[in-house]
Design brief:
single chain, about 300 residues, alpha/beta, about 45% helix, globular
């Protein structure tokens, strides 16, 4: 009996040793140091480093709507791309492209594909044109026309706006995975109404059909008019939320943090022909905001 017991003990000892050997570091106590090299094998993977943002891109393309085309900044009912906040050449605007590249290089290394009247749905097509230039930075400003419709029910839905902006970014990323993007927030349309409604000329022009969802019947202060304007304002804020959220998911995108929306512009920054689009002074203010965002050390 003793011999059999001794053999059983020996077999048990061999089995225990074998189990511990197979378990390896799992058999190590919680406070015991793991064998050398196991940290790299078993630790969580290191997070992907955030790519360095180039604060001095060598080329700029712009996409968007009439604001980026400089509409009504220089003359009535006409684009004025030389006054564009993004790519314009006028000294009194000092556009984003000129600030980044200098006057001479901006003339050769910046391109404006924005179109007056464009909606967010049109931006993907503009992106397709822009990528042919292989710009290092793409400046985006769109969304005002999506809110400025004949009625509030005709405004672009938030879901569609998101899909359209994502499509535009996808168009860019398919061709240029590492191109940087600056995204401007949609301006505060309700402030535009409150600033311009005191001007008889402005109200007269608005009656021709400029942003009726917000500016129609500018003197009306009844519940229906207030609700209409608030509905537009809420939609603009929702659009800006979409721009920020989509941009945050892209490693090479910077949103302006709502700076354009929050800018407290006055009548000096509005076109004297329509009291809606930015004047030359307003375009210069947009250029300042864009440059500040693009050249910030941290997004």
């Amino acid at each position: 009996m003793r011999k059999r017991s001794g053999r059983a003990t020996a077999v048990l000892a061999v089995l225990v040793t074998a189990v511990l050997s197979v378990a390896g570091c799992d058999a190590t106590g919680g406070d015991s140091p793991a064998p050398r090299g196991t940290e790299a094998k078993q630790g969580k993977p290191s997070p992907r480093p955030t790519p360095a943002w180039d604060r001095s891109p060598s080329s700029v393309a712009a996409v968007g709507d009439s604001i980026t085309r400089g509409f009504d900044a220089c003359s009535v009912l006409a684009d004025c791309p030389e006054a564009s906040w993004a790519t314009g050449s006028r000294e009194d605007v000092d556009s984003l492209a000129v600030r980044l590249l200098g006057q001479a290089r901006a003339a050769e290394r910046s391109w404006n594909y924005a179109r007056t009247g464009a909606l967010m749905a049109d931006v993907a097509g503009q992106m397709a044109q822009a990528v042919t230039r292989k710009p290092q930075l793409v400046a985006v400003m769109a969304g005002a026309n999506d809110a400025c419709r004949a009625t509030t029910s005709a405004m672009t839905s938030v879901a569609d706006f998101r899909t359209q902006f994502e499509d535009a970014m996808s168009t860019l990323r398919t061709a240029l995975p590492k191109a940087q993007v600056y995204v401007a927030s949609v301006p505060d349309l309700k402030r535009l109404w409150s600033e311009g409604r005191s001007n008889p000329m402005g109200k007269a022009v608005w009656k021709l059909g400029i942003c009726p969802s917000m500016l129609d019947d500018a003197d009306a202060l009844d519940a229906a008019a207030t609700l209409r304007r608030d509905t537009v304002q809420d939609r603009v804020e929702a659009y800006n939320g979409v721009l920020e959220e989509v941009c945050e998911k892209d490693r090479y995108c910077r949103f302006d943090g709502g700076a354009v929306y929050e800018y407290r512009f006055g009548t000096e920054q509005l076109s004297r022909w329509d009291w809606f689009h930015p004047s030359v002074n307003g375009q210069a203010r947009l250029a300042e905001i864009a440059y500040r965002t693009v050249t910030a050390k941290k997004a």
